[in-house]
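Box S2. Input/output pair 1.
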Amino acid sequence: MSEKNLTSISGYILLLIGLVLLFGSPFLFINGAIVAGVFCVFAGIVVLTGLAVINPNEGVVTTFFGDYMGTMKQTGLRWVNPLYSKRKISLRARNLNGQTLKVNDKMGNPIDIAAVVVWKVTDTAKALFEVDDYQLFVQIQSEAAVRHLANSHAYDNMEGEGVAEVTLRDNTGQINEVLENELNERLERAGVSIIEARISHLAYAPEIAGAMLQRQQASAVVAARKQIVDGAVGMVEMALARLAEKDVVRLDEERKAAMVSNLLVVLCGEKNVSPVVNAGTLYS
């Protein structure tokens, strides 16, 4: 079932007619025109029953003995068939601040995750007739989508090398886009459109937060050490090349090995190295 527009007419004139009929009926009763007075009362009530006030970004869904007749969206005082049943529904944008969920990510690590969803009704017929309670439907499906998102992606890349995949922490824009697309697919049957969906809270669960922090610190230390070693090796290569180019000193393989060892200790050490002057020789 899809939404269809229902044409209505302005209700101001009919409001005036209804009031005239109601307030004019006592004069008919006084003058003895009882039948005409009863008819005026009945006609006035019928006319006023067909009136509906529609605010901006609001719709009125009408049914006639169980049949969907259409949705009125013209704002102001409107009038339709008095026999139509009328139900108002808001078309404004709404916020859903999801609760924090504890979910296992793709790697099996427990994480805490929550999302904020901005949504609105775009098809009033589907919202009222395709699901029991469209607001509860949005809440439950949003929670299910967040759980599926967390199960389908890792919190962070566990490997330092290799192909980097989309993760919850490092690819926020792509993750929000995936969540928005999945929510639109899930909520299309309820006539709801997602304006924006984004992760509002993301963290490791408390029981593994300490261990994961140590892992991140260790990864940072390893990465820093790797960069230091790469730089030190480059400096040693440059030093040996410059010494050979300038012919400052001729070094055999044993002296080169000793020089490389000493330079790497100096360049890669965490603390300042105190030099030791060797007055002897390697061959003595």
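Box S3. Input/output pair 2.
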Amino acid sequence: MSTTADSSPHDWQRPFVPHDCGAIAGSGSGPLAHLSFAVKDIFDIAGHVTGCGNPDWLAGHAPAAETAPVVLQLLEAGADMIGKTITEELAYSLQGENYHYGTPVNPACPDRIPGGSSSGSASAVASGDADIALGSDTGGSVRLPAALCGIFGFRPSHGRVSLGGVMPLAPSFDTVGWFTREANLLRRVGEILLGPDAAEVQASRLYLMADGFELADEALREALVPSLAALSALLGAPAVVRIGDNEGGLTALMLRFRTLQAREIWTQHGPWIETARPRFGPEIAARFDWARRMAGEAPRDEALRREHFSLRMARLLAGGGVLVLPSAPSIAPKKGLELAASQGFRDRTLSLTCVAGMARLPQVSLPVAEVDGCPVGLSLVMARGLDMALLGLAERLMAALD
């Protein structure tokens, strides 16, 4: 198969895709009236081709017959869709640098990456082009760009928000998430897309993820101290936990996550890749080749260990427990990282984000601090299904910090 593009990247800074994607007026009334939203280019819009970050995918697929239900929900709530945003190729990366369409600007620190794969959506919100943006989060693709761009990002409980009309990547990990610049709006979008939690449980106990903080740069850890103090004032002093200790360490947990994810990704996209022989940028080509190799190996105990891990996390967070951890291990890296540095950042990040992904938990990233003028995010995680409780806690914490 052809795995590399035959032209150099464009130097685009705007977050929106170059191909026709349409703008759609909302209902004109409702809780989100007079607000705008952008949509990652893996969500279907009726009458338009969903490009998924790759020109060969764009050229080889027909226009969508229907609009993704989650887009319709925002339109019915009164918000206006203003366009579709750049994503990394088939949403399989965390950097935010699309080989074909360029890197959407990180408005907070323009010489640095925005994070991906929902890079365009995060950039659109951070720049003020849109009030709300939809993204997807399979391995961290909302939480990381929210942290690096200095905005709010939410990954819901797996299965809580409809994935209809959204390109699948790894279905047992895929979620629809969203970005805003305000905690109140993040919660209001949740009221539209989530509805009420099944149980009325409030945040009541705080757990500090020590091994997660140990992964982060020292300057980032220090920058989060005031936010941790404010959180402790709300919930009490935290109990210190080490999430990776029963898993062979966070790195081992991350590698199980990557393996499970890769097998699902090749199942979804391998047949198209082998038939269409698409042009991929070098890093994405290597990632899909690795997914193909993982899919060809006999499964070990990764799936079973995932279920055991999920049960442990459910017990830890039952009844209102809140896990706190850094959203990212560092501030946004500079654009154009060498391969080894890029992989190192990716592995450290996934060692943080895989916790919620493996256990199917909701997680919110909050812009609470800066290091060297670049944003730093703090993440909160609650039990599966307590999404609105988590968004309510995020709003309370930001009010306390303000």
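Caption for Box S3: Residues 217 and 330 are 6 Å apart (CA to CA). DSSP finds 13 helices and ten strands in the chain.
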